[in-house]
Structure formats: C-alpha cells, structure tokens
Amino acid sequence: MLAHRAIKQLRASSLLVHRGFAVLTADTINPNIVKAEYAVRGALVLRSNDYTDRLARGDKSLPFDKVIPCNIGNPLVLKQQPIEFHRQVLALVNVPGLVDESEAQKIFPPDAIARAKFYINNIVGGTGAYGHSKGSAVVREEVARFMERRDSHSADLEDIYLTDGASPAVQNSLLTLIRDEYDAILAPIPQYPLYSAAIALNGGSLVGYYLSEENAWDLDVKELTRAVTQARDAGKNVRAMAVINPGNPTGQCLSLENMKMIIKFCKEENILILADEVYQENVYAEGKKFLSFKKVLRDMGKAYKDVELISFHSTSKGFTGECGRRGGYMELVNIDDSVKDQIYKLMSVNLCSNIDGQLMVGMMTNPPQRGDASYERYAEQRDSILGSLKRRAVKLVKAFNELEGVTCNETEGAMYTFPNITLPAKAIEAAKDAGMAPDAFYCTQMLDDTGIVVVPGSGFGQKEGTWHFRSTILPPEEAVDEVIEKTSKFHAKFMDKYR
Amino acid sequence: MLAHRAIKQLRASSLLVHRGFAVLTADTINPNIVKAEYAVRGALVLRSNDYTDRLARGDKSLPFDKVIPCNIGNPLVLKQQPIEFHRQVLALVNVPGLVDESEAQKIFPPDAIARAKFYINNIVGGTGAYGHSKGSAVVREEVARFMERRDSHSADLEDIYLTDGASPAVQNSLLTLIRDEYDAILAPIPQYPLYSAAIALNGGSLVGYYLSEENAWDLDVKELTRAVTQARDAGKNVRAMAVINPGNPTGQCLSLENMKMIIKFCKEENILILADEVYQENVYAEGKKFLSFKKVLRDMGKAYKDVELISFHSTSKGFTGECGRRGGYMELVNIDDSVKDQIYKLMSVNLCSNIDGQLMVGMMTNPPQRGDASYERYAEQRDSILGSLKRRAVKLVKAFNELEGVTCNETEGAMYTFPNITLPAKAIEAAKDAGMAPDAFYCTQMLDDTGIVVVPGSGFGQKEGTWHFRSTILPPEEAVDEVIEKTSKFHAKFMDKYR
C-alpha cells in the first residue's frame, strides 16, 4: 500500500512539473473508459454516419443509394409507427389546459383524455417538475399491477424504480455491486455489450459463460460451474449473473427448466440474478412463452426467498419501440432494505428520470382495455407490429441459412438474428492485414458494398475461432427482401474473392 | 499490492463459505455509494414526504395544513407555469400527423407548428427513436448559435453534448477525470452536493475552497492557493475545479475580475475548469451580469487557448423550469480530440439522452423571436417569471435579515437564499443529544412546526462553527408572505426555547 501511495505521489508531483500539458488526454483519463467497448455504436456506425452525410449531400460515388441501419434495435427509424394512444396522452398532458379544450375533443379519443387527466391530477407539477427519485407513484402502481397480472404474484410499488431506459438501471446495479476488480459479474457470451462496457466502466471483472450455439444458444449448468470455478480460482468474488431473456444478440427464449436451473445454481452459489427482460413481449417461436425470473423464483416457493433478483424492462422494445423516450424500470426482489435505501440515494443524486418516459412506462404497462375507445386501434397496432416482426425474423433466418458457409439459429424472440459465418482463410488473412477482426472486416466490406450496417460478432463475444454478425429484424417488410438480396449478392462476391 | 490481493482472495473465499448470506447488504455494496451524501433529497425530505402522505389521508394532528417544499429548485410544483410555446411544440411533434390536421391550426400558433415541422423533418424517427449519442444535430446547432449570440465567439456543434439534465453531464465529466482516490477536484464550500456526491461515487477526493461569507460569498486566489497546496502536500493530484456561477446555494454572481483570476490560476496550476452555469438566466442584482467562462476565456486571447473547460447548462432552471424534462448539455472547450472520442463512447453506452428533453434544450436556446406569433406571450411569461423571482428573492433576504441572530447575503442570482443562523448553545446541545448537526436539528424543528422544507447548511458544507439553511425563492408570491410569517414565528419560538 505504501509503495502504491508513493507511486501516486510521484505521479502528482511529476504533473506539477509538467505545467502546460493538457489535464485530459487519452492517456490520463479514467482508464476504465478507455477499456470499455460498445460496438453497437462503434467504428462501423461512425463510418455509416459518414455515408449517410455523403448521400444527403448528393454524393453519387457510393455503390448504394441509402444506408440501412440494422445495427441497433431502433424500430421507429425503420418506419414502425408509434402506438397512437401513448402519444396522444403525452400531448394532452404536456399542453396545460388542452384536456379541457373543445377542439381537443375532436382530435383525441375520450380514453386518452381521461388518462391524461389522471396523470395531471396525480403528478404534482406535471411532466415539467422533478418527481420522486424512484419515479411517480401512480406509474409505479401501474407497473406493479402489470407484473401481478403477468406473474400471478404480488408486486410492491416500493420495489420498483423508474429509470431513463433500462441502460442506466443496469449501470446503477453494476455500480452497486462492483467494489473493485476482484468483484466479478457473470455475463453470457455472446452478450449485448452494455454489460461488458458497464462492468469495465465500474472497474469490475466480467466472467463469461458461453451459450451453446449447437443447442439453439442453450445454457447449461456445467458451463456455469466452469465459469464460476475458474473465476474463484483466480481470486474473484462472483457477485451476480446477468441473464438476457429473450437473448440479445442470440434470440433464444429460456425454458422453465433452464430458468429453474439458473435460480438453483445462483442460490447454491450465492449469486444475485440480473434479469434483462426488455424483450419480454418479443417472442415469436411456436410453443415458446416468456416467463419472468420473478415468477419462476416465486413459484419455486419459500426455499428460494433469499435469492436476490434485479429485473429490467424498457419502453424501447416490444411493440412500443419508444427508444428515444428513455423509459424503463427495475424491480428489486429479495433485496435488503438498507440496500434499497442506498439505491434510492444513488438515484436521487440524478433527481429523477424524465417524466415523459415514466408516463410511457405507465401506458406500456397499462394500455387501453377492451371496451375503451382506443382499444381496437391499439390492438391492431400491437398485433400488426408483432406479426410483422415474426414474419421478418423467419424470412431473414431462412435467407441467412441459404448463404454459403452460414448457419443461423432461429430467432425465438427479441429483435435480432446472429448468423455464424465460416470465413475463408484468405479473408482472415486480409482482415489481419487491415488490422481488423475477421468479422469486423466482413461487416465493413458489407457496409461499403451495400450500405447495410450490421455489428460484428466480436462486439458481443463469441467462441474462439467462430465469426458472426448481428442484424436486427427491423427493416420494414418491403425492405427485408432488399436486405436479403443485397446481403446475398455481397456474400457471394465476398466468398468468391477470398475463397 | 500482494497483501491487497491476498485480502481480497480471503474475502472471496470467506463469502464462499458463508452461503445463504445476502450478496448485497449495506456493508457489502460499493462503499462509494454509502459515502455519497445528497441532502437535497435526504432525511428531511423523506420526513416531509411522510407528512404529505398523512395530510393527504386527512390526518389533522399536524400543526400545519400543507407542506411547502423549499428544499429544491423545482418551480413547476410551486405554480410556475411552463412556457407555452415549448409545450405546444412538444405536443405537435409527438402526435404523428397532428401538424397537418385542420383542428390543430385552431389550437396551436403557426410558429409552433412550423417549429414542430422543422424537428419532424430533421430528426429521423422523431422523438421515439434513439438519436445520435451526442444528441440531435439540429438541436446542437441551435445551442451553438445561442452560445455565439451570448458570447460573441464561435461555437461548434461537435463540441456540444446533449444530456438528461446537467447532473449526468457533471457525473460523466467526473467519471472521466477521476482514476482513484488521489485524483482531486476543487469544489466550493458551500456547494450544491451533486459535486461531493459524484466525487464520492467515483472514488475521488474533494478539495474544498471556501467562499467568503463576509464578502458576499467572494472567492479569492489566496484561498484557492491554500486549497491546492494543501491537497498536493497530501499527495493529491488536483485535476479540476468546479465553479458554480451564479452560485448554489450561495447566489453570488461572479465578476469579470473574479473569473479572470480563476482562469489564470487554472492555467498556472494546470487545472481543468468545470463551469456549472445552469443559473445563467437567473441574475437579479443591479449592475450584475452573467458572463460565461467560455466568453471570458476566449476574450483573454490565445495565451489561454490551452485552458480546458467543460461548461454545463440545463432546461431545469432559468425561467424555463422544465426539471422533469431532463434536458441539458455540456460544451467541451479546448479538450483533446481523443478525449472527446472517449466521452462520445461513454455516452453511447447509454445510447442517447431523451429526445423530448433535447427538444426542450432546442426551444430554450432558440425561443420565438420578435415578429413570431408566439413572441409576445413568450416574452410576457419570461419577464413575469424573472421579475417575480427577483421580488421574491429581495423579500426573503430582507425578512431573514430581520430574524434574531440571522444574517443573509443578497441573492444576486440563482434560486436560493442561504441565511447564516447563530444558534444558542442550548440548541447545539439539544442537537447533539438528538444525534443531529445543529442546523439539521433546526431545520427538522422548522419542518415539524411549519411544514416548510429547507435544507441544512451542513448538506452543502460550511465554515466550521457556522450554521445555515438553504431555502429556494420559489414559493409563489402570495405564499412568500406565509413562508416568512411561519418562519419568523418558528424562529422566535425556537430562540425563546433554547436561548
């Protein structure tokens, strides 16, 4: 410790001597930021932004006339329409007095007006005032009732914390869990890189557990045991396990047996479960059904009442697709009261999450009901979006499986396909020369050739020697054929070149 | 280092043995969270929430009939009305097709419709889609033009990052600056506790510099030198200096000379400036004028072009008062490009700030202009709010100065008064018995007696042996007299009891 301190003092005094140097350089900022990687918005996306700008300026030199962003689950940029009821309520809440104007009756349905009045009457100061740091009580109540209907178990609004999307909820959970580099978090490989990035930012250790691509991205207890044993042998304290269900980027929907196994394992090994359930409404596979970890945990009875669980949900996914709203929540299950107080304090430093996003959470969890004026339109929008997503998933997976050297598991749920590409040795060599991971090289070539933006598997982690890319299933149905055609042509050309 | 590692391994293995214990307890969560304090939403506020609930349930046993929240700058809960134009644009943007409906022409003025069309046409996917991680380019352009008009210096939208309010911007800046406990940040005492809390959360060290209450909360270079020297002698690396201008909780508005002194000092000592300028529109004192650090820095010429500056602004304050919207931005001035890339990556992990909040930033910085349909109403709202805030500030400061043993500096700007209270020895003794800081004891008694919520000075830091409280100037004008009357009566009673 003394040596450590002496080194730091040396650093401090050496900086004193070097006046005139910048305080912040890539070498002197918090190294955890430098370590963090987030490929979903990484180099490829920046490159595609440049193409978008060039096309907008009328540049005709590119071999495509538009950029198709399949890098991120962002439905509304790809022509998905927002749920009308939700937007009407937001508008009515935001313009003081509008709910009482006669013109408004002509534009807005009565149930939207009624809901707006409910929020106006129950949220002091409205959408423009700071609210409770855990979020508006009336919205948390809506969330609790939603979870009760979903799980057939009680839910308490005091355990629900509204957040600016699921991302800050995950980040705050990891901030709470991680004390130093010896604190480890289990995360799936492949995984949505929010987890790897946030673990790096908080200075913790990620311990990967591999999903089995051969078995439809299944997860088995042997692999979990291997991961935990190896981490502990390396002196790590395994504190939590992140599970993404349905999977991102892998799309699998966990079975009841799988979930029970995970819960038993976590109880046995004293591990907290972080359940990322943002795709709970996106399940397409026949015979598959989303079950929440809370439900399964509670169904397992009193013996499991000490298993700690934090679950996450968001307005960005499902058929709501309101990403830019930054609405989300977490539920703390079996978490110590003193810890909940500390998490409240942590959230209070940022005062509250945005109120419009909170209201979107309220409407997502408490939508129009049969008999309400907006119900039919709501149900029509919901069914049309989910039906279309399913058709697109099936179509894309089928098309990818027809490409040379490509295999692709079914998209049981979520919003992505994650095809495995067998790259020729010459392509791997060329990637090496270009200083890129082979799948990043492939994806860059695809972007340059077609304007389609996908994310290389290396951004999510993958079994060594395998290569993938993640593509969303979000291009509108009429564009899916175009994506398939362009991808197939590009793939054939690429394989011909490097075979 | 080895000893450190051995201890950690021991901790890991001891946890292994103690299966069945909770993963998260107040003793085992990240201790930085436990250390962080945020009095603005602390114990007193929780106590006041309880009173609010009791009053709502019809409890008649309390000696007051309402809770008056003066603990936080949250204007819209205290009857301030939102700027109408801004809300109209939000509504028009959020309901697809509304801008083209004939009924809408009857409800909304043409400039609001035009602005909504501009945002709809320029923001791909609208308010419900993830946008650029730095924020929408059209809004950043509006901010850049605003800063150019304000400062008479160029501004580049690429240096502007939109955020969910100023708080996460400050937190991300501190996350970037702080590597470990040897990295220190200068912060004023007294100060808005976001700084102390965020420094603690990031595991850094706060080095306080005292503002001089005797000289209207002035700041002098001797005190800065003392603080930095003392910190360096203790082995700290002083990386940045937070300045809040106008001050929170102190309300002073920095003079040009003061700002130049700070900039010279920071250049000389190689310190980055964090300029919290969220109260830039709230200046009330005759002859005082807000100047941005960017302007003063640029006015000082090329010799200062390497002084690094990050400045913050928000939609929550000024006369906009849209706290719940979580709109804000930071500008990075003279910051290394590689660091800007890292900050972009850091922000991309959270995808983007909420788009409604971004639009509020756009409207705040680019409001209706003379000649626009909404201009008169806008100007009327603006002048009425600012005029009223000024009257309330003057009235409260005057009233506090008339209380026995109380002195209170002028509220030159911002939204607070910060009276100094000389507490009798018996009161200090009673506080000790109650296990509270003397000013927390005073504020708790005030809440219990009057329903008025203020924050003890100990939550902001203060010179040892002095006691204060912070009260906002936000109760509506008709309620200010009530606040003054209730406070005066309580104070007299308190002094009589403990004198």
From TrEMBL, chains A, B:
Record's keyword annotation contains Transferase: yes
InterPro entries: ALAT1/2-like (IPR045088), Aminotransferase_I/II_large (IPR004839), PyrdxlP-dep_Trfase (IPR015424), PyrdxlP-dep_Trfase_major (IPR015421), PyrdxlP-dep_Trfase_small (IPR015422)
Cofactor dependence: pyridoxal 5'-phosphate
Pfam families associated with the record: Aminotran_1_2
Domain Aminotransferase class I/classII large per the UniProt entry, residue ranges: 112-485
Tagged with keyword Transferase: yes
Keywords for the protein's UniProt record, in alphabetical order: Aminotransferase, Pyridoxal phosphate, Transferase
Recorded superkingdom: Eukaryota
GO molecular function, one term: pyridoxal phosphate binding
Assembly mode: Homodimer.
Similarity comment: Belongs to the class-I pyridoxal-phosphate-dependent aminotransferase family. Alanine aminotransferase subfamily.
Name of protein: Aminotransferase class I/classII large domain-containing protein
Originating species: Peronospora destructor
